[in-house]
Amino acid sequence: MTIALSQFDEVRLDRVSRDFGALNALRDISLTIRRREFIALLGPSGCGKSTTLNCIAGLLPVTGGAIWLDKSRVDTLRPEERGFGMVFQNYALFPHLNVRQNIGFGLKMRGTPKAEIDRKVDEALNLVRLKGQENKLPGQLSGGQQQRVAIARAIVIEPPLVLMDEPLSNLDAKLRLEMRAEIRRIHNELGATTIYVTHDQDEALSLADRIVVLRDGVVRQVGTPKELYEAPSHLDVADFMGFRNKLKGRVVGAEGGRAVLDVEGARISGVARETLSAGATAFAAIRPDDLMVGEAGPNAIAVTVDTIEYRGREFVGTAHSAGGLDFVFRSHQPVEPGSQVHLRADDGRVLVFAEPIQGRQ
Amino acid sequence: MIRDTTLGSKLWAAAIWFLVGFFVINLFAMIATVVTSSFATRWLGTWLPVGFTTRWYSSAWSEFQLWDVLMVTFQVIAAVVFISGALGVTAAYALARREFAGKRLLILLFLLPLMIPPITFGIPLATVLYQTGLAGTFWGVVAANLVPTVPFVILVMIPFIEQIDPKIEAAARVFGANTFKLFVHVLLPLLLPGILAALLLVLVRTIAMFELTFLVAGPTSQTLVVALYYAVFAAGVRAVQSIDAMAVIYMVTTLVWLIIALRFVNPTQIVTRAKQQPAH
Amino acid sequence: MDALAPATPVEHGPSLRQRLAARGFDAVTLLVVPAAIFSLLLFVYPFAFGFVLSFEPKAGGDWLANYKRFFSDPFLYDTIGNTLRLAIPVTLINLLLAVPIAFRVRLMRRQRLLTTILVLPITLGTVLVAEGLLNYLGPQGWFNRTLITFGLISQPLKLVHNYWGVFASLVITGFPFTFLLTLSYVTGIDPALEQAAATLGASAWQRFRHVYLPLLMPGFAITFCLSFVQAFSVFPSAVLLGEPAGVTRVISIAAATAAFEEYDYSMASAIAMIMGFVQLAIVVAVLASRGLFYRGPASGAKG
């Protein structure tokens, strides 16, 4: 592989902030990205993940903090001076240029000799498997092919850093899976350091080496996919990671990293993820997968079944408790809607969080 | 959007804003000249007039028979707006909802009067109207003004109608509306904002339409803008202030409607036909 | 709408009505008929009539007599040159000013105030602008006074009743028109394309040269044509602000004189046809060169 990526050790965001008038879109984002790493910025829409990406690319000036590429400061440079490759959400292919010209655009801007442009573009075409399409205009390509051109165009300039802004969100479900694998493969082959913005936790979990969860312009948690999936640090991160059951209760005991809650009279114990004091309101978060129909007893709560759906190997149901809590659960056998059952979870699979502070923190 | 902050780009931006400022200042100064002059007692060789008066308005009113001219103007405009609305909206509906042989040709036919300047087709049109005896009459002026306004309404309304889902009409049919009820209860309310916008634009354009009216109007069928032209043309016969008073009356008539129109339409629509039609 | 009405049972194949409906002709299509008849009567017929009439000279003689007279009389054929000498520089200046300004205004959040101000001279019309400029640019007008006060000139410039008066009025009414058209083309281009070019290392000038310009060329060509055609048909300001017997005797004046002073409708029609032909020739030439450029959506492919 001769598409070589520039040598550097780390990209560092140092308390980066961005205001739009009175609104703080980003507040004190600090983050270090190591060479060859694949980082996903994950969060709901409006959390500031695209703003972060645009600040790194130079498309939006930062209003505070700095961005460093090893020892050189880049946030004061214009986007064309930074040399980062970027893949846009709607691809932003130049409609008047064919595939070859689109991919070669960045090299041409740098004044690279024609023969070298041709050689590098050929290599990039091979890498994204678009040989034979090079004379088509973007309008004649399918969505997946356009996506490949956009990726090839970004990496052919051998950028120290590749930025991807929700690149799969315009594709249909099947193509999205295909292109996800493709992005993985290209990353494995090239080892390009990548920052990838997405609102889809599946994408982030499957692609990233590390995930950064953003909310309201603040970093909530940074970790490997496994850390985030198994040990989210806050209730909102847990919510994002698929802990759909959030049981509000009162702390009756907390010690040694474990906590016991009183939820509508039932005792629910689990792993304490935050500091909890007795008597305070807290939430027990449980994935639907871990909440099963079972016997009355410890870590079980009585509910009335609302609906039950057949999902092949098992059933997924919804239910509510006497106190008005809603539940999503799993069951091996059908349960009659309207019937009274107990839902149970292993205490190792229950995470307990403090009540979030209301409003923006 | 990318904003540069280098010195060169700041100078460039400053130069551009200077040009815009220069244009806007001259434009307003020109308008202010007319307004000031219309209130001037005597204004020769000084920055400002010797004194101010409103008497030029009453003299212009009687000298130029402005009451009659204004009446003719409003009648012409009302007729043009009404007829171009009726002809234009129905044709636009057919063109938006049906595909048929010759449709592209028809659209080209409606596009041409907007592409060719009025003076070019106005002269042959005036010739025909003089031969039929319509020229010089009220309806001759109306007919000439309709030539560009009917196509204008059609081309503004086609995209507007196209964006209304035809399933809504189908649904009304299913629920038992006949053609008349469909039109009154479903189509009209949906189309009203578009019709209003199109007709306001027609109105503003017709007040200022000089060439066509000039070519076909007779002494009793002049609109305000043509009367103003003759007054300026014969300058020297009347006092300048009197002509300027008339110009101010013309400006006020135009601007009132412009302000009303701008509540419903984007300023760029006065120049362009709704969204740019794809070139056929 | 009739397509939705319950179909009557048919025994012997499709009726004429159904066959027509299948090709798109039904009651709804008929709604286009009044406007089409109107257009034929008041646009196509007069044009054809004028065309034929231009070959039937009032004074008799052979069928080309009007055209022969036009092209042998310098007082007549010079009007083409006079008009082009006004229309081409004005259109080019308007377009050259409109492009950089539109690129700057596109970044503005409150464009509406500026577009509203610029729409003023268009709605006020050429007659009012001519009357206003007559005072404003006159020897005692505020424009000359300001220049003298700042010491830029010692004698008032002669700006009315000559070429420059008409030129100024064409810029005042023509620039807003050109600008607003240009702005609508410029803002129609997906800003992500410029961002993409920037991340790929293109400087501001390169982004304009390699991304915006090729995408905008077709729009600029149309803008040029529409602006040119407007300037070419200049009439009231050439009479009121210019020198209608001399340098600003434009082709519209020649046509109007033939019609309303000589009552020679045949000659007037011939001049109108020549005028239409010159406009058409320039428009076709400009639009033909458009074929050299990319034509299609400017929004970054399918997106």
The appropriate CATH architecture of the largest domain in chain A is 3-Layer(aba) Sandwich
In CATH terms, the superfamily of the largest domain in chain A is: P-loop containing nucleotide triphosphate hydrolases
Shape annotation of chain B: globular
CATH class of the largest domain in chain A: Alpha Beta
Number of H- or I-type helical stretches of chain A: 9
Number of strands of chain B: 0
Helix-strand pattern of chain B, N to C? Answer: HHHHHHHHHHHH
Write down the overall geometry of chain A.
elongated
What is the distance, rounded to the nearest whole angstrom, between the alpha carbons of the first and last residues of chain A?
Answer: 47 Å
Named CATH topology of the largest domain in chain A: Rossmann fold
What is the subunit organization of this protein?
heterotrimer
What is the first-to-last residue Cα distance of chain B?
32 Å
How can the largest sheet of chain A be summarized? Answer: 6 strands, mixed
Structure summary, number of beta strands of chain A: 20
Task: Describe, in plain words, how this protein is organized in 3D.
The complex is a heterotrimer of chains A (361), B (280) and C (303). By secondary structure, chain A is of the alpha+beta class. Chain A is built from nine helices and 20 strands. The model of chain A has no long low-confidence stretch (mean pLDDT 89). Chain B has 280 residues and is mostly helical. Chain B has helices spanning 7-38, 55-63, 66-97, 103-115, 118-132, 138-162, 166-174, 179-207, 211-216, 224-233, 240-262, 268-271. Chain C has two domains: 13-53, no CATH class; 69-292, MetI-like (MetI-like fold), CATH 1.10.3720. Chain C has helices at residues 16-22, 27-30, 33-53, 65-72, 74-105, 111-136, 142-149, 163-186, 191-199, 204-232, 236-240, 251-260, 265-290. In chain C, helix 12 runs antiparallel to helix 13. Chains B and C meet through helix 1, helix 3, helix 4, helix 5 and helix 6 of B and helix 2, helix 3, helix 5, helix 6 and helix 7 of C.
